[in-house]
UniProtKB/TrEMBL annotation:
Gene designation per UniProt: Urod
CDD domains given in the database record: URO-D (cd00717)
Protein name from the UniProt record: Uroporphyrinogen decarboxylase
Pfam families the record matches: URO-D (PF01208)
HAMAP family, per the entry: URO_D (MF_00218)
Length: 356
């Protein structure tokens, strides 16, 4: 049964204030993959439960979402899930293999295989994410905002064609030239599912959203503008239109296109409230490109988390000084890596909060 109690009042809203360009008490900080393998308590839970069982069981997803908040003075939580729940909902098997990552044993090899996808009713197969979001909002007791997320169309298409992660995305990229019309059909089908999914997350209680275009790095600027940007624009525009028509309050949306530092100006024109930067982008150059009215998020190199405390503190402080206190959310430039020392998270969070 859905929890219909009103959500607790938000106590620390610095994340949302930063996303809207309002004054913050302190620079907000959270970390991509903050609930994950670097935490021993996550490893313990995973010994008892399969990865996707955790995603599909709201109580377990909430427990994992809460784990980093018990340890660190973070300014946001992000619901524990995976970008590949959408391919699952569209009928593909996705397995998580130890030491390998996600594996899709029956990938989309040819345009003919698109007929195997089941977009009808896909949203009904994702209700567990909405249930976890609603449950988490109550468990948080207003401590920090809750972020929901999705993979972006090109990134999801890549996994679905490659059958998992890929260092080259060569099969997926071949589709762009060999099957351009079918690629458009595929990307539009994914976009439709994503808009439905994000709308559900907002209605369930997500206070902010992030769209992960994690495989943007495999595209040239020309291909990024052709095969990623139109669908990223559609996601934002259609979601805002739908929520507005239904009188559902809008939430800030972040776009994180890893490896698309070549197109920051174009990203800034898509209507997203926040642009996430990977660690290769200079904050001062990024600000010059996106202008003053968009919030930036990022972008410490995850590898810097392996440095000693003094070095890490200095690098973090320097980063925050470059971005400044206005319209800025501190984060890493990609997800935290599994061997990261836990003490580095303490150093990072404290250094961000004390930098300005």
């Amino acid at each position: 049964m859905k929890d219909t109690k009103p959500f607790p009042v938000l106590k620390n809203d610095n994340l949302l204030r930063a996303a809207r360009g309002e004054v913050v008490d302190r620079v907000p900080v959270w970390v991509m993959r903050q609930a994950g393998r670097y935490l021993p308590e996550f490893q313990e839970l995973r010994k008892q439960h399969d990865f996707f069982t955790v995603c599909r069981t709201p109580e377990l997803a909430c427990e994992v979402t809460m784990q980093p908040l018990r340890r660190f003075d973070l300014d946001a939580s992000i619901i524990f899930s995976d970008i590949l729940v959408i391919p699952q909902a569209l009928g593909l098997t996705v397995e998580m293999h130890a030491g390998v990552g996600p594996v899709l044993p029956q990938p989309i090899n040819t345009p003919e295989d698109l007929k195997r996808l089941t977009p009808d009713g896909a949203l009904s197969r994702l209700t567990y994410v909405g249930d976890a979001i609603t449950m988490m909002r109550h468990k948080l007791e207003g401590r920090v905002p809750l972020i929901g997320f999705t993979g972006a169309p090109w990134t999801l298409m890549g996994y679905m064609i490659e059958g998992g992660g890929s260092k080259t995305m060569s099969k997926a990229k071949a589709w762009l030239s060999d099957h351009p019309e079918d690629t458009k059909l595929f990307l539009n089908l994914l976009t439709d599912a994503i808009v439905d999914y994000l709308e559900m997350q907002v209605k369930a209680g997500a206070q902010m959203l992030q769209v992960f275009e994690s495989s943007a790095e495999h595209l040239t600027k020309e291909d990024f503008l052709l095969w990623a940007v139109p669908y990223l624009r559609r996601i934002r525009d259609e979601l805002v239109d739908r929520l507005t028509k239904k009188a559902v309050p809008l939430v800030p949306i972040t776009l994180f296109a890893k490896g698309a530092g070549h197109s920051l100006k174009e990203q800034s024109e898509l209507g997203y409230d926040v642009i996430g930067l990977d660690w290769t982008v200079d904050p001062i150059e990024a600000r010059a490109l996106v202008g003053p009215n968009i919030t930036l998020q990022g972008n410490l190199d995850p590898q810097d988390m392996y440095r000693d405390a003094d070095e890490l503190r200095a690098l973090t402080t320097e980063m925050v000084h470059k971005f400044g206190k206005s319209r800025y959310i501190a984060n890493l430039g990609h997800g935290i890596t599994p061997q990261t020392p836990i003490t580095s998270m303490d150093v990072l969070v404290e250094a961000v909060h004390k930098a300005l």
